[in-house]
Each structure stands twice: as structure tokens, then as C-alpha cells.
Specification:
single chain, about 110 residues, mainly alpha, 3-stranded mixed sheet, 3 strands, elongated
Length: about 110
Amino acid sequence: MNKPEKQTLEFYDYDYCSQYIAEKLGLKSLRDTLGKFDNSSPIPYEGERKNFEYRDFWHFLCEVPGFSNGSYIEINDDDLERANEWQKVIVQAFIDEFGEDANYFVSG
């Protein structure tokens, strides 16, 4: 038996990519796309902010089996199939920018 060879995996850092995609889409963060919990909210009054939807792309990713901090993930067409409309915009932006077969390291 031959000695195993070292393997190399190319990947993107998910945190940097998510910041890049958020900026590209004109969002402050993918963690709070509507700005419910910060001052960038389009709804100016705290009482009204509590009544609108919290949209966190991270929660969408967490639904994938095996997803955890310290793991590698892909964002691809399979995600488009399970996403709702606002999530599809973000998934498509990742695919368009980094490709269908990109690997991302989730450091947490």
C-alpha cells in the first residue's frame, strides 16, 4: 500500500462572502435583512418594528443536515429549490458571484 497523499480543498470563508453579498445586494447584513434589530430599519418606531418579519439567511443555512460551525458547505441549485422568494435572491447572488460548485468554510 502506498502512503496516502495530502489532499487540498479550495474554499471561500463564508463570513467574508456573506458580508460581500450583503453589500452587493444593498443590505447591512444577511443576518437581519430587513433591519428589524438595528437603526437601518425602514420602519422608524421601535413598537412597529416588533411586528414585522425577522429574516435571517443564517437560519436558512442551518436547516441543512450536517451544517455546523467548523464545517464546509455549498450554496447551489438545491438551495434554490427549498428557498422562499427572499432567500432565492441571496442564494442566486452567491451562485452568480462564486459559482455553483463553490465550497465555503463556516467558522462561526
